[in-house]
Structures are given as structure tokens and as C-alpha cells.
Write a structure and sequence with these properties.
Helix 1 runs parallel beside helix 4 and helix 2 crosses helix 3. By secondary structure, the protein is α+β, with helices and mostly antiparallel strands. The chain has a five-stranded mixed beta sheet with strand order 1-3-5-4-2, sandwiched between helices. The protein is globular, with a radius of gyration of 15 Å.
Length: 179
């Protein structure tokens, strides 16, 4: 089973956190694609990320339509075309995708970041992916960035590399704050 993780973050201006995370179990956090719907996997990933933020006395992330469009499109493209990078094969950066999705429209100040990962088998679950991110300094920094208030989560069935065996999943989380 394989697990790969990569990171990037871009930040411009940023401000304050939101409310704290609830303490509860995250349903479907141990599910692989095919064992739960994409919506359930996204909710499980959001729940796990907010538990991490709550444990560090930070505000919860809320799902954003614009960031979700950017994240879903990137995960789907990486799995379909078989590459793993924050930049698309056309050279578009994660910031370009976030802008194209309309998230930064009319924003006077903003901060964005992105985490990507993929895994196969039991390493493709939201629990495994979030755990890997929390054990990586750059990914952890994005998750625990106090200024981030919103998130888009894209999870696509399939691994971004052809050599991966078994069922896999490709994850993109786009974080943001805009004002």
C-alpha cells in the first residue's frame, strides 16, 4: 500500500479564527472510496481536520463552494491524468485554480494554502490522510493556520500514479481566508 503527501502554501494577508471544534467521533473516517459516498468522505475529512484545530484551541473550518470547486477539480484531474503536483500539467498553480473558481473575487485581503495526498487501501482513508498531514510540518502548518476559516475538499477515487495497486484515493484540500 502506498501513501504520498505533498504541500504548498501561499499567504498574503490574514486575520482571526472562528469557533472551537466539538469533541466527537468522525463517522466514515476509516472508510475507503467505495465504502462511503464522496460527500461522507469529505465530511469525515472536515471533521478530522476540525478536531485537530479544536485540540489546538483554534476555530473550525467551514466548507466553501469556491474552494471546493478548485479542490475537486484538481483531485479528479490528478487521478485521471496520473500526475501528482500542486501545479497542473498546463502549469496552472493552486492559486490560479482558486482564482478561476471565483473564491478571491472581490476580496481585499486573503490567504490561501493547499495540501495534497494520495494513498491506496487502508492508507486512502480520511483518517490515514489527515494523520499523514499532521506528521508533516508543512501540511500541519496549513491545517493549524489560525487565519484559515474556509476549506474546499476534493477526494477522487484512484491514485495519481499508474503503478499503484488496489483501490486508491487522491485528496486536495484548499484552505482560505478572504476579507
Amino acid at each position: 500500500m502506498l501513501l504520498a503527501v505533498c504541500l504548498a502554501a501561499a499567504a498574503c494577508l490574514a486575520v482571526a479564527p472562528v469557533a472551537s471544534a466539538k469533541k466527537h467521533t468522525c463517522k466514515h473516517s476509516g472508510a475507503q472510496t467505495g465504502q462511503a459516498t464522496k460527500k461522507q468522505l469529505v465530511r469525515a475529512t472536515l471533521c478530522l481536520l476540525n478536531k485537530q484545530r479544536g485540540a489546538h484551541h483554534m476555530g473550525r473550518l467551514r466548507l466553501s463552494k469556491g474552494l471546493g470547486v478548485a479542490a475537486r477539480g484538481h483531485s479528479a484531474e490528478m487521478a485521471r491524468v496520473h500526475y501528482f503536483s500542486h501545479s497542473s500539467l498546463s502549469g496552472a498553480s493552486f492559486l490560479d485554480r482558486i482564482r478561476r473558481a471565483g473564491y478571491l473575487r472581490r476580496a481585499h485581503r486573503w490567504s490561501v494554502g493547499e495540501n495534497i495526498a494520495w494513498g491506496t487501501g487502508r492508507l486512502s482513508t480520511p483518517r490515514s490522510i489527515v494523520s499523514a498531514w499532521m506528521h508533516s510540518p508543512g501540511h500541519r502548518a496549513n491545517i493549524l493556520q489560525r487565519n484559515f476559516r474556509q476549506i474546499g475538499i476534493g477526494i477522487s477515487a484512484g491514485a495519481p500514479v499508474r503503478a499503484a495497486s488496489g483501490s486508491g484515493a487522491t485528496y486536495t484540500t484548499d484552505f482560505g481566508m478572504r476579507g
